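[retry 2/3] Cysteine desulfurase: previous attempt timed out, resubmitting with same input.
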Amino acid sequence: MYDVHKVRGDFPILSREVNNKPLVYLDNGASAQKPQVVIDAITQAYSMEYSNVHRGLHYLSNLATDKYEAVRGTIAKFLGAADEDEIVFTSGTTEAINMVAYSWAMPRLEAGDEIILSVMEHHANIVPWHFLRERQGVVLKWVDVDANGDLDPQSVLDAITPKTKLIAVTHMSNVLGTVVDVKSIVTGAKAQGVPVLVDGSQATVHAPVNVDDIGADFYAITGHKLYGPSGSGAMHIRKDRMAEMRPFLGGGDMIKEVSRDEVIYNDPPMKFEAGTPAIVQQIGLGVALEYMMGLGMENIAAHERALTDYARTKLTGLNWLNIQGLSQTKGGIFSFTLQGPAHPHDISTVLDKKGIAVRAGHHCAGPLMDHLGVTATCRASFGLYNTTDEVDKLVDALELCHELFA
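[retry 2/3] Cysteine desulfurase: success.
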């Protein structure tokens, strides 16, 4: 059975107090806390095992290289990818999507070509495409969500025209918690010859994902949300798409030979991994993913579904709380405002005094804020270590906010 209290014991920061109150960490959508096994792995790598990878023949270099490269297989296993050579290490989703924009899209797209986006996208899956709009005249086409925050796959497919060259869509909204049926989008798009990029930053945290089953051309993850270190992450890229991509960055490791007159690039995935990488961060990410798989992704998903259902009942019972997005697919992310003059920053400040960490702002989702008609929200986002007791503390603190600001 999934014992959340035992799991909490694996995360040292959860035992601390903030403002003389036990920490209630509900900012997992921004970045998750780290279990002791990840902290220990990072400490071990830096204190006893550190060396550069791929370059040396000495013991430490070989050890670091073996540990570093083993993470590629761990990520492939975590994502359900049969071929670990389709895993490209990145610093996170932002770099991964920029890599696709520069390496794959920029050489192929011309003025008037279209990229389809949902209005729910994080800025990391918007700004790189704006670069192409500004510099090459690419057209961005937006697909809205409905009143519940759901994205109809058919509405995405209906937006396809002969000019459509890419669909870029989130698997789970970082604001609404909506889980998107990306497999249906990929299947329908593939029938029309349109590649699909999926931002998996949130979805892979909360439930099992199988990228081979989904079939997307590009699927990005970021380590710091997966209970791993910041500066770690990966992109799953189908081999046929890899063959179409030029190198993103130039330097060591991504080459076979360099002379005065030519350069011969390394084979993928190394072709897209220039320079000294985030060695320790990726090793830490591998440990974090092993930790999650050890708990069982189905067990994590079941725990979080029960927690989300509990939170939905509690929060929707507050008739002065405006919750953004109540999709039936909703994961453990609740964005909200209070009726009255309270700004989300005011709300988060009061919650912080109670030891409760939430996020307040636009959540790097400007187009969605415009669509919702708000400038900012508070966001409580749950992780594998959160409890119903913490939901109750959130509700109590929100009732205090209502009393203060009503």
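[retry 2/3] Cysteine desulfurase: The mean pLDDT is 97.
[retry 2/3] clearing retry counter.
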